[in-house]
Design goal:
Radius of gyration: 23 Å
Number of domains: 2
Oligomer: single chain
Helix content: 25-40%
Strand order of the largest sheet: 1-20-19-15-14-9-8
Number of helices: 19
Shape: globular
Distance between the termini: 31 Å
Bound molecules: glutamic acid
C-alpha cells in the first residue's frame, strides 16, 4: 500500500500558522487515511496502521521547562481537543475530524504522548478518565495496582525507617501494574466510533519516522541524573558521548512503534501478556540495585474499573453547578470539593481579584480551607476496596453542615489556625482509626480534555508518576532502539505503614491495592439543565488539587475565560506552608500573608492545565503556557 507520506519527521521550527489552519491542514490526509482504512477493513486493519501519518509542523513552544508562554486561548463551535504537546493534540484532532468520538481522540493523544512526552505519561502508566455521553457521567479507573507480592514494608529500609523518595523511585520497586491501556480499551468498547487500530496510526508513524524533541523534554533530559543509568534509556535519550538530545533533534523510537503496532492489531493483551509483559517483568525484577515484585500474573489479571462519579453541587448564585470527578482512590475531586465548599462558609465569595490576581485576604482564606481539606485527605483517602469511607460515604467529607463546622475554625483576618486535624464526619463515637499520611513529593503527569461533535466529552489525567517514572525503559531485545517507560506509581502509597501511635495509615501498601492519587480530571455541568460547562484538569502531584481548584474558581466564580483562569498565578497549601508561584505575586501579598502568620514559600509551580469550557457563543479552550499544551478544534 502506498504510504500517505507528507513529510519525514517533524521539526520544532515555529511556523506562523494558527492552530485552526494547522488542524485544517491535517484534515486532508487524515480523511484520505480514514477512507483507505474503511475500504481496507475487510482486508485487515494492520494495513491501515502501516499507513504513514503526517508529520505536522510544530507550534511555538516554551524554550525551557518553566518559561511561561502567553497562549491566546482558542474558540470553537463543535469539537476540540486539548493536550500537553502539539503533536498529541494534532493526533487527537485528526481523529475528531475523521468522525471519531472523544474517546477515540483521547486514545490517539495518549499513544502520541507516550512517544513525545515520555516524561509524563504512557502505556507504562495509569490514568483516570471522566466521560460524559450526553446523559450520564462515568468514571473510568485505570490506576496502577500493587503487585500481589507487595506488602506494607515495601518502602521500609532494613532498619525499619522509610526510604528516601529518590531511592524508592528509581528501579523496579515502585513499579505498579500499568492500567492506562486496558482502561482506554474499556472506554473504547463503550464509546469508540473509529476502529481501535486506526487510533494508533499517528503514534506509529511518528515513532518510526521520528519526532522533534520538544524544548521541555530536552530541558528535563538535560537536568536528569538517573535515566542515564538504564542502558535502554541511555541509548535512546542520549548520544554516544552521554549528552542528552537537544530540542529539535529528530528522535525515532522503532521499538515503541513495533509495540504499538502489536497493540493496534491485538488489543491491550499485546502489552499485558506475551513478550512485552515478559520484558516488563524482566526490567522490574532484574534491576541491579532496586528490583521490584511485578509478575506476569499481575499484568495478565489487571482489570480497569468503572466507578460511580463523585459529584457535588457548587453554587455561584443564581447558578448551581455540578462538579464531577474521580472518587477514591483519587483524592482529587474530594479535596477540591472540600476546599471550595469550606470557602463558601468564609467571606471569600465577596473578594474579587486584586489587580488581576488573588489578593492576600482571599489567599489567606483559601490556604486555611485547604489545610482543613488536606488534613481529611491525609487521614481518610485510600483505595475503597481496602479502606471504608468515613461515615460510610465519601461525600460525608463534603457535606455542607460538616464543612460549615470545619470552617468555623478559620479566622477571616488571621492569625492562621495553629494546628489542623482531620474532622469526624458523621460524628462517630469511636476514635479515629487512621494515622495521617505525611505529605510526599510527586511530579509528572499529563492532562487531556476532549469535546466531540455529539457534545460528548471527557477529562483524562494520565501519569507515570515522577518525571520519567521509574527510569526503566522496556525493550523486548529485538534489536530495535527505544521502548516505553515504566511508572513508579507505588510511591503514591505511604512509605510508613503506621503512625507514631501505631495506628495504620489508610494509604499503606497492600497487595492488589491502588495507591491514593491527587489526579482531578473534572467535568462541570449546569445542575439545572444538565448541560456540560467545562472539562479540565492538570498534572502536578498534590498541587493538581490547587491548580484545578484555582481554575474552577477563576472560571465559575470570577467569570474568567479558561485561558485567563489558567494564567492566574498558582498558589497552594497542603500541610501549613503557603506556596506562591515565584515571581507572579506582588511582594506586598507575601508580606500581608506573613503578617497573618503564614509561612510563605515562593517556588515555581509548573501546572499543565488544559480546559475546554462553554461560552455564550460556543466553546473556549485554554492550555497552560507553563508547559507545551495547545488546543485544536473547529
Ligand atoms: N502520581 C500522582 C497522582 O496520581 C500524579 C503525579 C503528578 O501529577 O505529578 O496523584
Amino acid at each position: 500500500m502506498e504510504a500517505l507520506r507528507l513529510k519525514s519527521g517533524s521539526r520544532a521550527t515555529p511556523l506562523p500558522v494558527s492552530p485552526r489552519t494547522l488542524g485544517a491542514r491535517m484534515l486532508g490526509p487524515w480523511v484520505l487515511l480514514a477512507v483507505r482504512c474503511g475500504l481496507l477493513l475487510g482486508a485487515g486493519l494492520w494495513v491501515c496502521v502501516q499507513a504513514q501519518t503526517t508529520a505536522p509542523a510544530a507550534i511555538a513552544q516554551p524554550e525551557g521547562a518553566s518559561k511561561i508562554v502567553q497562549n491566546p486561548g482558542w474558540h470553537f463551535q463543535k469539537q476540540a481537543v486539548a493536550a500537553a504537546n502539539p503533536l498529541a493534540t494534532e493526533a487527537g484532532y485528526a481523529m475528531l475530524a475523521a468522525g471519531g468520538s472523544a474517546v477515540d481522540a483521547a486514545i490517539a493523544v495518549q499513544m502520541v504522548l507516550t512517544l513525545v512526552e515520555p516524561q509524563s505519561s504512557g502505556i507504562g502508566g495509569g490514568a483516570f478518565l471522566m466521560h460524559f455521553d450526553g446523559k450520564n457521567v462515568q468514571a473510568y479507573d485505570g490506576r496502577e495496582t500493587a503487585p500481589a507480592q507487595a506488602g506494607p514494608d515495601l518502602f521500609l529500609a532494613t532498619d525499619g525507617t522509610p526510604m528516601a523518595m529518590k531511592q524508592a523511585i528509581v528501579g523496579g520497586r515502585a513499579v505498579g501494574v500499568p492500567g492506562a491501556l486496558r482502561m482506554l480499551a474499556m472506554a473504547h468498547a463503550a464509546h469508540g466510533k473509529l476502529p481501535w487500530a486506526f487510533l494508533f496510526a499517528p503514534a506509529i508513524g511518528l515513532a518510526r519516522d521520528g519526532f522533534a524533541v520538544s524544548p521541555r523534554l530536552a530541558a528535563l533530559l538535560a537536568a536528569e541524573t538517573a535515566l542515564q543509568k538504564d542502558p535502554v534509556a541511555a541509548a535512546y535519550f542520549y548520544d554516544p558521548q552521554g549528552r542528552s538530545w537537544p530540542a529539535g533533534h529528530l528522535l525515532r523510537n522503532p521499538e515503541l512503534g513495533a509495540v504499538l503496532q502489536r497493540i493496534a492489531i491485538q488489543g491491550p493483551d499485546a502489552l499485558m501478556t506475551g513478550e512485552v509483559a515478559q520484558a516488563m517483568v524482566q526490567s522490574v525484577r532484574q534491576h541491579p540495585s532496586n528490583p521490584g515484585l511485578l509478575q506476569l500474573s499481575d499484568l495478565a489479571s489487571y482489570r480497569p474499573l468503572l466507578r460511580e462519579a463523585l459529584c457535588t453541587a457548587y453554587t455561584v448564585a443564581p447558578k448551581t453547578y455540578r462538579l464531577c470527578g474521580m472518587p477514591p482512590p483519587s483524592s482529587g475531586m474530594l479535596t477540591i470539593a472540600s476546599i471550595l465548599g469550606t470557602l463558601d462558609f468564609t467571606p471569600a465569595a465577596s473578594l474579587p481579584l486584586v489587580s488581576g490576581r488573588p489578593g492576600a485576604d482571599w489567599l489567606h482564606l483559601y490556604s486555611e480551607a485547604a489545610r482543613l481539606a488536606f488534613a481529611d485527605r491525609a487521614a481518610y483517602v485510600a483505595d475503597p476496596a481496602f479502606t471504608p469511607a468515613p461515615a460510610g460515604d465519601w461525600l460525608s467529607l463534603v457535606q455542607p453542615a460538616y464543612l460549615q463546622a470545619r470552617a468555623a475554625a478559620i479566622a477571616p483576618h488571621g492569625p492562621v489556625m495553629p494546628q489542623v486535624q482531620a474532622g469526624r464526619p458523621g460524628a462517630p463515637q469511636e476514635p479515629l482509626g487512621w494515622a495521617p499520611m505525611a505529605e510526599q513529593t510527586e511530579h509528572g503527569t499529563s492532562h487531556i480534555s476532549v469535546l466531540d461533535r455529539w457534545g460528548h466529552a471527557l477529562a483524562m489525567t494520565t501519569t507515570i508518576e515522577d518525571a520519567f517514572g521509574a527510569r526503566l525503559m522496556v525493550n523486548r531485545g529485538k534489536g530495535l532502539a527505544g521502548g516505553f517507560l515504566l511508572n513508579n506509581q507505588l510511591t503514591d502509597f505511604s512509605f510508613s505503614p503506621e503512625g507514631a501511635d501505631g495506628k495504620p495509615v489508610a494509604n499503606r501498601v497492600q497487595a492488589g491495592k491502588r495507591p491514593r492519587s491527587s489526579m482531578a480530571p473534572t467535568l462541570v455541568f449546569d445542575a439545572d439543565s444538565g448541560a456540560l460547562q467545562l472539562s479540565g484538569g492538570s498534572p502536578g502531584g498534590a498541587f493538581i488539587i490547587h491548580f484545578t481548584a484555582k481554575t474552577l474558581y477563576g472560571v465559575l466564580r470570577w467569570g474568567l475565560s479558561p485561558q485567563a483562569a489558567i494564567d492566574l498565578p498558582n498558589f497552594a497549601n497542603m500541610e501549613g506552608t503557603t506556596f506562591l508561584e515565584k515571581g507572579r505575586f506582588a511582594p506586598a501579598t507575601a508580606a500581608a500573608l506573613q503578617a497573618r502568620g503564614h509561612q510563605v514559600l515562593e517556588i515555581p509551580l509548573t501546572s499543565g492545565l488544559q480546559v475546554i469550557a462553554r461560552t455564550p457563543s460556543g466553546w473556549a479552550g485554554g492550555a497552560d503556557g507553563r508547559r507545551e499544551g495547545v488546543v485544536l478544534g473547529d
